[in-house]
Design a protein that fits this description.
Blueprint (H helix, E strand, L loop, with lengths): L11 E2 L3 E7 L7 E4 L2 E2 L10 E5 L6 E3 L5 E4 L6 H4 L26 E9 L5 E11 L7 E2 L3 E7 L9 E2 L2 E2 L13 E7 L4 E3 L5 E4 L19 E10 L7 E11 L7 E3 L3 E6 L7 E4 L1 E3 L9 E6 L5 E3 L5 E4 L7 H4 L2 E9 L8 E11 L7 E2 L24 E2 L29 H10 L10
Length: 440
């Protein structure tokens, strides 16, 4: 009797799911993983053939017999070459295009593996493939050329000049936040760049020598340049370059000029809102003075406002100039802006405003009440019973002391208040106070 095997067993994988990693620049046809399944049936029924399915299966090749997985040579004509693929990759390893995997496009793949025996029974398992990023993208500056105009003696770049480069690689290869910046070359002394943010800075004020046109009086702009390099954090690092062009113009060329400086003013601390404190005036060497507009840059503390047309500085509607609360001096920075197009020029000046004290606060005793005990033996002329002290928040206040006999209260040794008016008047006549030091 001969027993004939039937296909009564399904293929079985050695695990329910598999995890693999592969570099995004892995060469095609190099093995990256091996899948293993078994079938207890004999002969052709036990012979297993492997297939890949699901999104992205065409990026990989699986040997149908050994289960070895490699990166495919991707091609747009895959289906034309292999019409039977349609969900299976029987063979796509001969395409001429090797750029199959790209971390930036697809960092992971979740595939399904099918193992089919000779009798058509099949089993499935999951294959998770993680694409490992490599530094294959060069940083790209948002602009290739950055232009900024500066003025001589500038100690900072305004508005801020920030260079920015992008990197399509993942975080492990320097993108998007792993880029560092440096100045590769520059002919402007004192120019620096923040290596992390890419903000250009001046480490010292610009010093420049200008050639003045004898006919027009204008000064020729000076041109400076810098080559900035962006370096990613990949291995090996990749770089990109951008150019910064800076034009430095004379600070005296066309800017409004304040006249009658320095500005110093005095205002009483109880000045009503709207009171004029001082008026400033600027002239425009290359435009009408009537088009100059004035503004307060800093220092007003909401206590002062400026008329943008006349330059009058006034106490603001909500201004409080109490010296004891807000201080005795203000330093205002004011700006004059001309009508230049497209870039109006601005110059600044300072106003020192001294707040004058007024007698608007009463003196106040240091203590709320004073109590003194006096024996008969101490009732001798010029014996100091007690010393009182008062303070006045107004500046230069001169305090004088006096006794108010009508409000004086005198008690005997038992604590009882003397109710005889003549006795109170008698004791009051015995006391005097030093009007200057408060000694009783």
């Amino acid at each position: 009797m001969t027993l004939v095997d039937t296909n009564d067993n399904y293929p079985q994988f050695d695990r329910p799911e598999y995890h693999a990693k592969v570099l995004e620049n892995q060469r095609p046809q190099q093995m990256i993983y091996t899948i293993k399944a078994s079938d207890s049936d004999s002969g052709n029924y036990g012979k297993i053939t492997y297939y890949l399915k699901r999104f992205g299966w065409e990026k990989f090749h699986i040997d149908p017999e050994s289960g070895q997985i490699s990166v495919a040579q991707c091609s747009s004509d895959l289906y034309a070459r292999n019409p039977s693929a349609k969900g299976h990759n029987t063979d796509n390893a001969n395409s001429p295009n090797n750029d199959c995997l790209d971390f930036e496009t697809q960092p992971t793949y979740s595939l399904r593996i099918e193992a089919i025996d000779g009798g058509g029974k099949r089993a499935t398992a999951n294959l998770h493939i993680e694409i490992v990023d490599v530094n294959d993208n060069v940083p790209q500056f948002v602009r290739s050329v950055y232009v900024r105009e500066l003025h001589e003696r500038d100690s900072h770049i305004s508005p801020p000049l920030v260079l920015r480069a992008m990197d399509a690689d993942g975080p492990s290869q320097g993108g998007p936040n792993g880029i560092r910046y440096r100045i590769k070359w520059s002919n402007l002394t004192g120019l620096a760049i923040d290596p992390v943010t890419g903000e250009m800075k001046l480490t010292k004020a610009i010093k420049a020598n200008f050639t003045r046109n004898p006919d027009t009086g204008s000064r020729k702009k000076l041109n400076y340049e810098a080559i900035i390099e962006a370096i990613d954090g990949g291995q090996p690092p990749l770089t990109a370059e951008a150019t910064v062009q800076m034009y430095v113009r004379s600070e005296r060329d066309g800017e409004p000029m304040f006249i009658n400086e320095p500005y110093i003013a005095v205002v009483k601390e109880n000045a009503p809102p709207g009171s004029v404190v001082i008026q400033v005036k600027a002239t425009d060497p290359d435009g009408p003075d009537s088009k100059i507009r004035y503004s307060i840059v800093s220092g007003a503390k909401d206590s002062f406002v400026i008329d943008p047309v006349t330059g009058e500085v006034r106490v603001s509607p909500t201004g409080d100039l109490d010296r004891d609360v807000y201080g005795s001096q203000y330093t205002l920075t004011i700006a004059a802006t001309d009508s230049g197009v497209p870039n109006p020029l601005i110059s600044t000046a300072e106003i020192t405003i001294n707040v004058e004290d007024v007698k608007n606060k009463p003196p106040k005793f240091v203590e709320d009440s004073y109590v003194a005990h006096l024996s008969e033996k101490q009732m001798v002329p010029n014996y100091e019973i007690i010393k009182v002290e008062a303070k006045d928040p107004d500046s230069d206040a001169k305090i004088r002391y006096s006794l108010d006999g009508k409000r004086m209260k005198i008690h005997d040794k038992t604590g009882a208040q003397l109710s005889n008016p003549s006795s109170e008047r008698y004791f009051a006549s015995l006391l005097k106070i030093d009007p200057i030091n408060g000694s009783v």
